Amino acid sequence: MNLEEDKGWVYRLYSGDVTAFDAIYHKYHHAIYRNIYKFTKDEDVSQDIMQDIFIALWEKRMEINPDKSLSGWLFVLSFNRSISYLRRKLKETTIVNTIPFDEAEPDIESIQLIDDQYYLLYEAINQLSPQKKKVFTLCKLEGKTYEEAAEKLNLSKHTVKEYLGNAVTSVKSHINSNPVGLKAVSVIVFCYWCS
């Protein structure tokens, strides 16, 4: 998790630097796709939504705060789009829509809220031990499987699962103990992310 690198890319996006966009895509597209697929269970739909996310990144690049979490912004937008897809699907099948979620694109205020909430999340992640932080970053931010993380860190799959479970518990505990806390929708996002 390299926030300084992401910050540099966001500044380059401001000036329309396509290579910065390509670097962000390369770093995050796999994890974003997996997050979307958890909801849609459809490869084509997940691919379409992921592409929409990166189009939105380019179109809304001037609204992104470089001092806050780029991966958090991408994740929440992908969550929004996935929920919107599910709502449309439910409507098409005439099932009553009970998912209380705003389909609108994030505006400046909601982006600031996302930034604040993900700052809290990153603060929690940064309090983890170095090895647990690496496991959490690989599995949750970069979308690696247990096997991929185990191979990269030269650990057993069992150890990776154990470290990740402990890391998720610690991060949740930090967030729950913070007086600011997370709003209801973000709690859903966070719990989904940590599933």
Strand content: under 5%
Number of domains: 2
Number of strands: 0
**What is the CATH architecture annotation of the largest domain?**
Orthogonal Bundle
Largest sheet: none
CATH-defined fold name of the largest domain: Rna Polymerase Sigma Factor, Chain: A
Task: Kindly report how far apart the N and C termini lie.
Answer: 19 Å
Number of helices: 9
Taking pLDDT < 50 over at least 5 consecutive residues as the criterion, the unreliable ranges are: 94-104, 181-189
Order of helices and strands: HHHHHHHHH
Going by helix content, strand content and strand pairing, the class is mainly alpha
Protein architecture, described:
- This protein has two domains: 1-105, Rna Polymerase Sigma Factor, Chain: A; 107-195, Orthogonal Bundle (Arc Repressor Mutant, subunit A).
- It is built from nine helices and no strands.
- With 195 residues, it is mainly alpha-helical.
- The longest helix is centred in the N-terminal third of the chain and has 23 residues, at 18-40.
